[in-house]
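To whoever picks this up:

The nightly regression suite flagged Sphingomyelin synthase-like domain-containing protein as changed. Nothing in the input moved, so I suspect the structure step. Input below, exactly as stored in the fixture:
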Amino acid sequence: MYIAREATKLWRKVSAETAAELQLLLEKWQLLLAGLVFQYIHGLAARGVHYLHRPGPLLQDLGFMALPELGQEKGYLSESVFTFIFISFLLWSFHPFIYHSKRFYTVLLWRRVLAFLVASQFLRIITFYSTQLPGPNYHCREGSKLATLPPPNSALEVLLINFPRGVLFGCGDLIFSSHMIFTLVFVRTYHKYGSNRYTVNLVVFFVDKKLPEMPDRTNGLSLLPVSSKDKDGWMKEELQLHKLDSRMRDEVHKLLNGNTVDPTDRRQRVQMNGKHGEDMNHAVSDATPNGT
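Regenerated output under the current build:
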């Protein structure tokens, strides 16, 4: 009975959360779709620069000198770490569907993440087409058959980007790393909306300025009322906000027409009229010399 009751509560929560997220998706789908389309454009640009890549001697780098290479047989370790980070962030971004402690809507979170990715990837495309360096990866070095690509036979060959092999074994897009773009954006987003703050960069600062801040969900408010109690509380709060807004409009209208009911405010305006105020003060002082 306990499992059945908890499963029913979980299903109601998932259903309510899904309805709220779908409502947001219908309103914000344009930027989400543009971000997903740009992922293909980014892959297409990386495929295109591979045709321009020319292998050469490895560049001298202090980091490579200080840290030994993993070796070609252990190259999977890098991809494994990145895959773990990617899947972990993906699962965490959907936790509001299950957990009660939530600070964001999943649609708005991915809308923001894709905006960061698009801005960073756009700068990346400009960079690796402007500065082409010999790739240090094993399949990009001299002697490898994958280091250079023969001219394409058709435009379709370029547009298909040889997925996924063309993405995993690309060369020429050295500066800057796409893996690091995803990793830093995911880590930064988690630290902002998960638990702690994190260092920001120029791209994050720019996107934060252009996009409005996401609403905080710690107060328990949702776009759709889950129960009749939540619905009554939501309607009561809306009514209070409406009354407050009407009262503020009335006060502004009174101030503009000079019909304020505050006697102190009225006396100050009369005294600011110059001579009329002075004559009134003289009349009052003559009529009441003892100040009574």
